[in-house]
Design a protein that fits this description.
The protein contains 5 helices and 7 strands, in the order βββαβαβαααββ. The mean pLDDT is 89. The chain is α/β, with parallel strands linked by helices and 173 residues long. It is globular. It has a 5-stranded mixed β-sheet. A two-stranded antiparallel sheet has the order 6-7. 48% of the residues lie in helices and 23% in strands. Helix 1 runs parallel beside helix 2 and helix 3 crosses helix 5. It comes from Saccharophagus degradans. One of its GO terms (molecular function) is DNA binding.
């Protein structure tokens, strides 16, 4: 595995984070937040998400893409907007030939913090610690970096499982 682009989608703010996985180590590359104008109509915001992610993909050349799955929002309208933002991000990845990994928020938190019920400040702290950052990333950028780290951890676990030959008493041998 090489560079993973993690995305925390939103219709007003979409976080992104790039992590390089080399020789079992994770290295921070870049992160940030794509901000849309609340005055723009939803189609214009989706275009901004798509074009911004295509630009990021072209610049950093990630080999994999990871995104948070839709969760139940406070309202149906919010869930629909989030789903459309996810769709724009996924289309940006697929049109550039990237495989897409999707992860529930609880799984991301479990993978990075150790608790699926962790709050945003705990995620920010652990992302900063795991990637040896000098400053705490913004919430949406930290979430995106956590998604990339979750993808790396999941893929590494799958590779270890594939290399195991058998189970003995519920453990890999």
């Amino acid at each position: 595995m090489a560079i993973v682009l993690g995305v925390d989608p939103g219709s007003l703010k979409t976080g992104f984070g790039l992590v390089n996985h080399v020789s079992g180590r994770c290295e921070y590359i870049a992160s940030g937040v794509i901000r849309m104008k609340s005055s723009d109509e939803l189609p214009e915001r989706l275009k901004t998400i798509f074009e911004s992610l295509v630009e990021i993909i072209e610049r950093y050349q990630p080999s994999e893409f990871a995104i948070e799955k839709v969760f139940m929002a406070k309202s149906a309208g919010s869930a629909l907007k989030l789903g459309q933002a996810r769709g724009a991000a996924i289309v940006a990845a697929v049109t550039n030939g990237l495989p897409v990994g999707e992860y529930e928020a609880r799984k991301v938190k479990q993978s990075v913090v150790g608790s699926g019920a962790a709050d945003k400040s705990q995620v920010q702290h652990m992302v900063r610690t795991l990637l040896h950052l000098t400053a705490t990333p913004q919430e949406d950028a930290a979430d995106a970096l956590a998604i990339a780290l979750c993808h790396i951890n999941t893929q590494a676990s799958l590779i270890r499982l594939a290399g195991s030959r058998q189970f003995r008493r519920g453990r890999l041998v």
